């Protein structure tokens, strides 16, 4: 009888382990998306949408400007990114593009890159883009590894090099195929102020040593 | 955040200037965007004749009054078609006065972007010429620089931080290049010489922007640079590569969990079988 009770225990434990492990994994894994679709948020105000054109008056109103080179406006660069709810707290470096036209990402996975050719947090329009590694073969998990768990409503703070803190709130997260990443809309320099956080995600291709997807988080300024 | 950088020449293209002799039909270069026949043309007017304010007329209508040297218009949308352009001394009567310069039958095609420039030819005579602007998007991370020689001067070199960017450029030619963005100290010297024509000025070559620089003026009034910049020519990076290890690979159940699950199921099956056989 004791041996049979043992068998019962093994049966129950085996079923719990066998079915529970994948079930717990499925429940625990971050959802692929949170909030409305990224494309939907981006489309809410299409970048640079031209105003309806007035009937072309053939003698248009003329406005003049000096042909002297205008002074270069200085806007402080972001220096630190903090997302308290998912434990992201990383220094930010200005980055441009690589020879292949891709956004450069700081080699140090603990640092996040700010797309320096686009808007800064202090600019009045367009998207501030911050991107960081999810991981690296040599350095392990990166500063943005937790981005895929960011939830709608999460607070984001960006400290700029002048010491000013800008506050943002996550409005959407989505994992998008890299081939379908709406780069023009994400990196727009016009339209409403927005913060775009990017990293990699989705299935990993061992051969290409690359993830298939990008995790995209959109945040809007907190007034 | 903008830093001064050494400028490097990425590509050099000899610009094509369409001169206003006869009936110039202007076509936008690299015209890969579909244009509608009803699209207007975009025209900027630049006044680069030193010292003399003018009135600008298009098809006999006054377009710009009291246009000061060293100024330019914001881009104007003009219905596509043919235009006669004339400039007159300020307040002259166009019915009777002789134009300072004129350009007849300029065909502005739909979607065209051009800068109509009033300037001095090399010999000092006033001229009116439409330069076609390449306002196609600039590759991400770069700046497009266009240099136009519209000064009463022989061929020049245009230098950035002392390094020639454009060499042996004659009036009224232009040259277009892609450069690294940044702020450079730009000056103009006689071609192949160190004789200064325009003293160094700080020039921002912004990423994603077409910066067009005009060297204008004459010996008597001095030489200067006029600058025109584009909008909506920036492009985005092609991709955002941010992971190389697969540590958060989301391709399904992780292997250790698969192992745990299998062991559990095998144990459960064995125990279940024992229960069944013992009962039987």
Folded structure, characterized:
The complex is a heterodimer of chains A (223) and B (280). Chain A is α+β, with helices and mostly antiparallel strands and 223 residues long. Chain A contains three helices and twelve strands. In chain A, the strands form two sheets. Chain A has an eight-stranded mixed beta barrel with strand order 3-4-5-6-11-12-10-9. Chain A is elongated, with a radius of gyration of 23 Å. Chain B has 280 residues and is mainly beta. The longest helix of chain B has 25 residues, at 255-279. The N and C termini of chain B lie far apart (82 Å). Classes of the chains: A alpha+beta (223), B mainly beta (280). At the A-B interface, helix 1, strand 2, strand 7, strand 8 and helix 3 of A face strand 2, strand 4, strand 5, strand 6 and strand 16 of B. Strand 2 (64-66) of chain A pairs antiparallel with strand 5 (71-73) of chain B.
* Name of the top-level CATH class of chain A: Mainly Beta
Helical percentage of chain B: under 10%
Low-pLDDT runs of chain B: 1-24
Helix count of chain B equals 1
The largest pleated sheet of chain A is described as: 8 strands, mixed, barrel
Rounded to the nearest angstrom, the distance between the terminal CA atoms of chain B is 82 Å
Specify the biggest β-sheet of chain B: 5 strands, mixed
Q: What's the structural domain tally of chain B? A: 1
Strand content of chain A: 25-35%
Structural class of chain B: mainly beta
Order of helices and strands of chain B: EEEEEEEEEEEEEEEEEEH
* Amino-to-carboxy terminus distance of chain A: 70 Å
- At the fold tier of CATH, the topology name of chain A is Sortase, Chain: A
Tell me, what's the shape of chain A? elongated
Would you report the number of β strands of chain A?
12
